[in-house]
Specification:
There is one protein chain. This protein has 546 residues and is of the alpha/beta class. It folds into four domains: 230 residues, Rossmann fold; 192 residues, Glucose-6-phosphate isomerase like protein, domain 1 (Rossmann fold, 3-Layer(aba) Sandwich); 34 residues, no CATH class; 38 residues. The protein is built from 23 helices and 13 strands. A hairpin with a 2-residue loop joins strand 3 and strand 4. The longest helix is centred in the C-terminal third of the chain and has 22 residues. The protein is globular. It binds 6-O-phosphono-beta-D-fructofuranose (F6P). The site of 6-O-phosphono-beta-D-fructofuranose has 14 residues, from loops.
């Protein structure tokens, strides 16, 4: 496979970037009254506005050429077909099967995966109904009031983000909590105030070997048994979500209480599987399935829509335009929707674990930039924290603004104020403020002389800072499903163009290996090994302090 940066479209984009680098979006808007119509798309009740980008029709044409020259269409088809596109682990990548609401057969090694997908969905439904209708009883006969999801990474961030996002659809009768960090403070804080007789622990781990999750699960079991005294209580208070039945049984969880998923579901793409059980417990199975439907609609759009009207393809290409041609390093996710508080952290794993790679599919070191640093915070909080750098700093930071037209609560003018900020920030980033405008404002305030010159310089905003805006009607389960799927496919598009494997995560292994060795050293189970002097110094200091 030719490296993407050696393709004609890439070379043309390098030249094109030089040509348009000094073009200001203010002028592009002024020259073309149709710019918004040209560079925005509707999908259901979603509006995707990408007109505030440093693009012209020619830019898009070249980016679409790049998509074609990197065989993006074939790569999309290969994923949906169940090819083993995760080549290092020799696995298919079929999270799309989990929300295949058309129930079309998807063959993996000649066998349709859909009957298994549907079987687990039915098992989830039966269990969720039992718990939510209080038929599932704890070891002393009481119904469950609290669910604790113990998992980390993909076994935590997705369900945590969705449960928070869909809070208006949850019931106070069944509270869902999340524990991920091996730091005891995380588990202790959640257990405080919980009643072991009415608490259900959901241990979520694809491998069922992850150190943090297993340590938390063990301590949660000790906590339960210190109250219940009878090991039989575990069967009423522990369920497992995993691909590893053997390890689940070894831990002591009855495999009847295990909800399976499969090696073709990547951790960070797993919230659609049984990993989403805590979501379904929080909002009910029907709403969980509505979320699957929202994602399925986007899957259909992604597979079938021509690239020039394909939202995830455009999201991916616009990101590449900045990463590889403007050499930006980061990307901000800015939900003007408090319920999406955890979306930036969720997408940090989704994007950075997927595309944080420097070796391509042929095993060659890449000589172009891959995934950006993802960060963000809900608006308006971010405005009072890091937006200063976005408006006037030396870095160019492309970003996504997201907002719902309707709020869930309708409290006074809150929502309108929020939306005015959602509209103002992308406008300010795009337009900026010229020196002359700043000066005129100051003169109107009576500032004169040297002070005027100084202040006008400090108050000048270059503008020309790009953003996308997503506006949807209301954050419902279906809308959220669509939104997540849009980002999943954006990440896919970028990985495909960069010719990297977006579906392994070898980079997290080295730290895990070293921590195991150090843990054995700390426990005196292993002779001290030779570390660098910094690690040895820290270790010795820790021993003196502990
Ligand atoms: O360490 C990274 C990782 O493997 C993630 O990809 C994954 O989501 C997380 O750990 C948790 O893994 P598991 O579900 O197997 O416990």
């Amino acid at each position: 496979m030719t490296r993407p940066n050696q393709l004609p479209a890439w070379q043309a984009l390098v030249q094109h970037q030089r040509d348009v680098a000094d073009v200001h979006m203010r002028d592009l808007f002024a020259q073309d009254p149709q710019r918004f119509e040209k560079f925005s798309l509707c999908f259901g009740d979603f509006l995707f506005d990408y007109s505030k980008n440093r693009i012209t029709g020619e830019t898009l044409g070249l980016l679409l050429d790049l998509a074609r020259q990197t065989q993006l269409a074939d790569k999309i088809a290969a994923m949906f077909r169940g090819d083993r596109i995760n080549v290092t682990e020799s696995r298919a990548v079929l999270h799309v099967a989990l929300r295949n609401r058309a129930n079309r057969p998807i063959l993996l090694d000649g066998e349709d995966v859909m009957p298994e997908v549907n079987r687990v969905l039915a098992k989830m439904r039966a269990f969720v109904e039992q718990v939510r209708s209080c038929q599932w009883r704890g070891c002393t006969g009481k119904p469950m009031t609290d669910v604790v999801n113990i998992g980390i990474g993909g076994s935590d961030l997705g369900p945590r983000m969705v449960v928070q996002a869909l809070t208006p659809y949850t019931t106070p009768a069944l509270r869902v909590h999340f524990v991920s960090n091996v730091d005891e403070a995380d588990l202790m804080q959640v257990l405080q105030g919980l009643d072991p007789e009415t608490t259900l622990f959901s241990i979520v781990s694809k491998t069922f070997t992850t150190q943090e999750t297993m340590t938390n699960a063990q301590s949660a079991r000790d906590w339960l048994l210190s109250h219940a005294k009878d090991p039989a209580a575990v069967a009423r208070h522990f369920i497992a979500i995993s691909t590893n039945a053997k390890k689940v049984a070894e831990f002591g969880i009855d495999t009847k209480n295990m909800f399976e998923f499969w090696d073709w579901v990547g951790g960070r793409y797993s919230l659609w599987s049984a990993v989403g059980l805590s979501i379904a417990l929080a909002i009910g199975m029907t709403r969980f399935e509505a979320m699957l439907t929202g994602a399925f609609r986007v899957d259909e759009h992604f597979r079938n829509e021509p690239f020039e009207r394909n939202i995830p393809v455009l999201m991916g290409l616009i990101g590449i335009w900045y990463d590889n041609f403007f050499h930006t390093d980061s990307y901000a996710i800015l939900p003007y929707d408090q319920h999406l508080e955890f979306l930036p952290s969720y997408l940090q794993q989704g994007d950075m674990e997927s595309n944080g790679k420097t070796v391509d599919l042929e095993g060659r070191r890449v000589d172009y930039t891959t995934g950006p640093i993802i960060f963000g915070q809900p608006g308006t909080n971010g405005q009072h924290a890091f937006y200063q750098l976005m408006h006037q700093g030396s870095e160019l930071i492309p970003c996504d603004f997201l907002a719902a037209a309707k709020s869930h609560h309708g409290l006074g003018r809150h929502h309108e104020i929020l939306i005015s900020n959602f509209l103002a920030q992308p406008e300010a980033l795009m337009r900026g403020k010229t020196y002359e405008e700043a000066k005129a404002e100051l003169m109107a305030e009576g500032v004169t002389g040297e002070r005027l010159e100084e202040l006008a310089a400090a108050k000048t905003f270059t503008g020309n800072r790009p953003s996308n805006s997503f506006l949807y009607k209301k954050l419902t389960p279906e809308t959220l499903g669509s939104l997540i799927a849009l980002y999943e496919h954006k990440i896919f598009v970028q990985g495909a163009i960069w010719n990297i494997n977006s579906f392994d995560q070898m980079g997290v292994e080295l730290g895990k290996q070293l921590a195991k060795t150090i843990l054995a050293e700390l426990a005196g189970e292993q002779e001290a090994i030779i570390h660098d002097s910094s690690t040895t110094g820290l270790l010795e200091h820790y021993k003196r302090l502990r």
